[in-house]
Design a protein that fits this description.
globular; Nitrilase/N-carbamoyl-D-aminoacid amidohydrolase; six-stranded mixed β-sheet; single chain; 6 helices
Length: 313
């Protein structure tokens, strides 16, 4: 039986200085560790502002390889503190191939692997298709590519088996299910999501509620823990020519949901926060016995899921 352990969430902002952002994250990781955290999760693209608000070619200069200087520094830190780190980065995989990625570092400092965001949005202030190549699907049988190079995946860290998905991935039940089917006990969703300030009064409450509800549903449907890690603060749109309220107000409210969907802990809306919460993986088995969704799945009836849309009658 696995003993309870603690998860740390780093909900913070980011400015234009990657070195300062890394230093801030290091300080907050140390704070979380001092409070007992053993798996610590950072926000999407943790060491930079959310630059996808506009299309600027010079933003590609923020990317770095994995492994690279940031993962090297955090591997050293993870080994020193004996913590697992989820480190979301703008990855330069090769010339012209850039990814929205998350490195997973085990408590011994080893780089276990990389998840590359599979679903890439393209909406006002979220122009990610300009910057990111989507993660590749599973390697076919006989492919020279390692299965570790692509697709949905899990990592058996020192403390738990975790799967990582990123932001827009959170709206797709298929990604959560395929990751849970591989044994994920915890689904981690590093995120950069917020309000268009001009829409907040009309739509803001419903948008945030939908975001939270969707991820709580992944916890229920898959009988696992879900950790959602957001950023906070207002970031202006650099192409707005100084128009007031042009940008994104990130809504914070990072949370952990238990396998029954309840919110175990939630961070504030407007402030940076380090959240450390003990969880008990025994809840997973209890939940799956009571709600045996994996037992009752009709795997013989789901072939149509691979189509873009149904053919109709």
């Amino acid at each position: 039986m696995t003993s309870p352990f603690s998860i740390g969430i780093i909900q913070d902002l980011a400015d234009q200085d990657p070195a300062a952002n890394l230093a801030r994250a290091t300080r907050l990781i140390r704070e979380a560790t001092a409070r007992g955290a053993q798996i610590i999760c950072l926000k999407e693209l943790f060491n930079a502002p959310y630059f996808c608000k506009a299309q600027h070619a010079d933003r590609f200069d923020l990317a770095e390889p994995i492994p690279g200087p940031t993962t090297d520094a955090l591997q050293t830190l993870a080994k020193e503190l004996e913590v697992v780190l989820v480190v979301p980065l703008f990855e330069r995989q090769g010339p012209g191939v850039y990814r929205n990625s998350a490195a997973v570092i085990d408590a011994d400092g080893s780089l276990m692997g990389v998840y590359r965001k599979m679903h890439i949005p393209d909406d006002p202030l979220f122009y990610e298709k300009y910057y990111f190549t989507p993660g590749d699907g599973p390697s076919p049988a006989g492919s020279p590519l390692s299965p570790e190079a692509s697709g949905f995946k899990v990592w058996k860290t020192r403390y738990a088996t975790i799967g990582v998905l990123i932001c827009w991935d959170q709206w797709f039940p298929e990604g959560a299910r395929l990751t849970a089917m591989q044994g994920a006990e915890i689904l981690v969703y590093p995120t950069a999501i917020g309000w268009h300030p001009a829409e907040k009064a009309t739509h803001g409450e419903h948008q945030q509620a939908a975001w939270e509800t969707m991820q709580r549903s992944h916890a229920i449907a898959n009988g696992c823990f879900v950790v959602a890690v957001n950023r906070v603060g207002f970031e202006p749109d650099p192409s707005s020519s100084g128009k007031p309220q042009a940008g994104i107000e990130f809504w914070g409210q990072s949370f952990i949901a238990a396998p029954d969907g309840r919110i175990v802990v939630r961070a504030p809306v407007e402030h940076e926060a380090v959240i450390v919460q003990e969880i008990d993986l025994a809840e997973i088995d209890a939940s799956r016995i009571g709600w045996p969704f994996f037992r009752d799945r009709r795997i013989d009836a789901y072939a149509e899921i691979t189509k873009r849309f149904g053919d109709g009658d």
